[in-house]
């Protein structure tokens, strides 16, 4: 009986290891199929991005203005070359979850290619949570590491990586 079990075990291991191997040769000269990357639209001041999922418009997002401010916070750790305030608005058209946009959704890049941080400057408009059918607006202040006449703003529209890119002149 032990001999039969050993023979069955050896056959099982042999067949298992044989199944793991492949006699098929791979042709490394064949071109691999790549997805075509869509040309990403670059937005500017006043242009609205519509976030759509499953052919349904869910959210509108617009950058209304980008302006310089002379406001400096004496207690701030950073000493940026320039401080800007971004004014934006958004609308929850049909997103079941309430929406809220703030600096957590933004990546600001100055003309020197520096990713910039928020700055504790005075702002006048604070964003609010927007349920379906409502709108809100907000402002965020950023300290730029290099004097710039324009910035690049990358907005994360959802948590799965959907982004919109803006190139915005500083007014």
UniProtKB/TrEMBL annotation:
This is DUF4352 domain-containing protein. Residues 1-21 form the signal peptide. It comes from Faecalibacillus intestinalis. Keywords: Signal. It comes from the Bacteria. InterPro entries: Immunoprotect_excell_Ig-like. PROSITE patterns: PROKAR_LIPOPROTEIN (PS51257).
